[in-house]
Amino acid sequence: PERLILDCDPGHDDMAAILLALRHPRLRPEAVTTVAGNAPLEKTTRNALRILRAVGSDVPVHAGAARPLVRDPVDALSFHGESGLDTVGEGLPSTETGPDPEGAAETLLRRASGAPGELTLVVTGPMTNVALALRLRPGLAQQLKRIVFMGGSAGPGNVTAAAEFNIWADAEAARIVLESGVPLVMMGLHLTHQVRLTRRHVERVRRGRSPIAGALADLLSFYLQTTARHFGEEEIGAPLHDPCAVAFVAAPELFELEPMEVRVETRGEQTYGMTVCDGRRMPADRESRRPNVQVAMRVDAEAVLEMVVRALGG
Ligand code: BDR
Ligand code: CA
């Protein structure tokens, strides 16, 4: 199995990513690290703990950065609700356990140096923890097998016309990570918008065999509703962004990648947080380009959805 660490900010789609990582037979999650993003750090950490403990997992949770490196903190509570993981009905049971005393950057560094070339880091939130770890020890870039991240876009953004939320929430951190030399695989909005969770999937989860089927279905219903309210796209469903990154580690054959030079805009007035993806096909320019990211362009969306619904018990 693939050994991985999941760095996340749950968040509804992060929740699905966590459960996919736990349930897929080809994956071995060793730790979950949390970051401020969809919600402030205390909430994303509590949500991660609630998800894991509700399904009986003892994978350790390490809390990371409470603030971005440079910019002012932002959140997506208007999307994921006050708790960062709101529900239409029954929520997840609460848990008394707190996070592990070791911080996120510290655990990344310790675990990566203990297993050089073995660990995949999956990032489904802002990249603050990863950037901090790279600043503490740049050699981390050579110790990780790769980073698979949900973030950015080769087309339009979501939080602004140009920027996707995870990159926009800490563009300076994303820039450090994308320039670090670590092998990178990107799941941008142009890809994750192909993978749509619908009411039909949610009903399968509700009728499924998970001991918390009702709670999971209610959480996903909230996510469907909030997406419909923001984008008016109820019929075509809600994009399952974060599970795409985990699904890639489990089943890379479902994805088509293109190597590209991807740079993060940190100074643009209109474009802060944009991922500028050089997808030009003119051969004359090839020489000067330095592809630093494998950008996922196409996916077998049905297969990914099936994988996620099964991981949720459906
Ligand atoms: C990303 O932003 C967050 O709200 C989601 O959890 C996902 O990681 C999508 O832009
Ligand atoms: Ca996320």
TrEMBL record:
Gene Ontology CC annotation, any one: cytosol
Limits of the Inosine/uridine-preferring nucleoside hydrolase domain: 4-305
GO molecular function: purine nucleosidase activity
Protein name, UniProt field: Inosine/uridine-preferring nucleoside hydrolase domain-containing protein
Organism, as annotated: Limnochorda pilosa
The UniProt record lists the keyword Hydrolase: yes
GO biological process, one term: purine nucleoside catabolic process
InterPro entries xrefs: Inosine/uridine_hydrolase_dom, IUNH, Ribo_hydro-like
Top-rank lineage group of the source organism: Bacteria
Keyword set, alphabetical order: Glycosidase, Hydrolase
